Amino acid sequence: MRKAPSGISPVIALDRKAETPLYRQVYDAYRIAIVEGRLRGGQRVPSTRLLAVELRISRLPILNAYAQLVAEGYLESRVGAGTVVSRSLPDQVILSQIRGRRLTSVSQRPRPLSHRTSSLLPLGTGPWQRGWGAFGVSQVAFEQFPFAVWNSLVARHSRKLQAQALDYGSPMGSKDLREAVATYLRTARAVRCEADQIMIVSGSQQGLEITARALLDPGSRVWMEEPGYRFARNVFASNGCQIAPVPVDEEGLKVADGIRRCRQARVALVSPSHQYPLGSTMSASRRLQLLEWAEHSASWIVEDDYDSEFRYESSPIASLQGLDTNSRVIYIGTFSEVLFPSLRIGYVVIPSDLVEHFVAIRLAMDLAPSGFFQSVLADFIQEGHFSRHIRRMRLLYNERRNVLLECIHGELGRATKVTGAQAGMHLSVIIKGVSDRHVAQRAAKQNLWLVPLSSSYLGKVRQQGFILGFGSSATEEIPNAMRELRALLDSR
Q: pTM for this structure?
């Protein structure tokens, strides 16, 4: 028997110091999401008890907000089926139509696209990228995955497999999965999208590759965060692009520096919700400044939203794409960071007028994504298993993060600077006077997988240290692993 979905709530950023009561803030968030079409008729919302736990407030404000929404006809409460969004909302229909027209309108400024390149560069790797052990980056809590549920879904789809499933699928991916992803992104990430804008890809890396080939030519200039994601840098370098490193600080990418250094870049790659590797969140003013630059310069923004599901000390951070009114942002996400890497399923949210260009590149690469596990994942999301798993993992990763922070302060001293601990499954430690690559190479021999911070710089290395993952590190194993790291640092 299928379990009932647990529901998805919109982005709710509560301000406990505001004069507006908490129940009204929750009510406003739901009403706006429903009216704008981010929550659709018939969609199930979380129970009051579950939402209260997630927002870290008492249940009473949630009860009052839901009661008001039911009274005004925005929600329906049905015995045995929970609370769902009402299917008859006149103002939702009107405003959704207005919003739909706004989303389909595009700027009259030039919208340059790639002529494609076939030149590839040899790309090297370090020993820290090959292991599975303590502090591995982009590794999840594999043992906590709901294997029984997943295996049941796999068995179900195996039993009903038909001949049609053996043929090539759509280059955009499974319609069921795209619908599920669109619903999730609209509600959980405030992304403006419909299913026909979503392309299913083999992880975010392929999403970046398709995007680079669709938008860029050899010699095109690209803003990249400095320090930044080295595998993304490899994608642009292999496509013959000129990379312009733009520094980041506690507010994210320094847009003014990027404009001063390379105003006419064609693409800016950013990770605004949790910058890799330093972990800063891009401020609202920088987001608006970046969007304004992209529109005035006829440029594109690629938003890499790789682990936004996990935040520990603040309200959820909405996507940059949700602020974009000129269709200048290409949004990339992945299930590898939140489920398991070998799944190799990610997605790209493409501006409507670019879809055919992305499809052309996709057809030139691999025709279409494999279909079987798309169907399994679609059910996994639609039946609520994905939301439940995320909530469980958020608690587990928060526990592991807290233990790691305690061990860092205890073993390395509070003088060590820690960045990026507010979200995600990794943090960075900045240590003065250390050759991080040398230590990382020695650590790999002891099954410690330390990614050197210096490997994330394209230009002059300004800080040395390590990127430490805690997703796959068991809580009880972290103290000993940190002692081993301390011993390595003492013996250098």
A: 0.80
